Amino acid sequence: MQPGLPDLSQIMLKAQQMQDAVEQAKASLADSEVSGSAGGGVVTVMVSGDGELRSVTISPEAVDLDDLETLGDLVVAAARDASRKAGEMSEQLMAQATGGFDLESLGLGGFPGMPQPPADPGALPGSGSGSGSGSGSGD
Description:
With about 140 residues, the chain is an alpha+beta fold. It has a domain at about 30-100: 2-Layer Sandwich (Ybab, Chain: A), CATH 3.30.1310.10. It is built from 2 helices and 3 strands; from the N terminus they run H-E-E-E-H. The protein has helices spanning about 10-30, 70-95; strands spanning about 35-40, 45-50, 55-60. Strands 1-2-3 form a 3-stranded antiparallel β-sheet. A hairpin with a 4-residue loop joins strand 2 (about 45-50) and strand 3. The chain is rod-shaped, with a radius of gyration of 21 Å. The protein starts with 7 loop residues before the first helix and ends in a 42-residue tail after the last helix.
């Protein structure tokens, strides 16, 4: 080994330790739950830390049979809130696991199976691009 150059065995050991810490963080995320709510708490959504939908709770006062569109909007808003919180928790745990090391700067991207922040912070995975809020084309 030349002076001033890092020891490759130490680099590999640190990489293995980081990989182990990331695996532990992923397991912790899968076991944790985060809630999101909308409408002052009349709709609550629970997701796992890795983004899996666990439950939706709707208070009876949120249900207006003449305005189901608003109920749908509340469910989407609560899911977005929960998803945002799960993403924040994931970022925090992964930063701890990697010691703040930015893997994206090396072109390694995120972690497989981990929720990635949406390009549009208000978008949910699978919700398509912003389609507007009405139905019909105005004809």
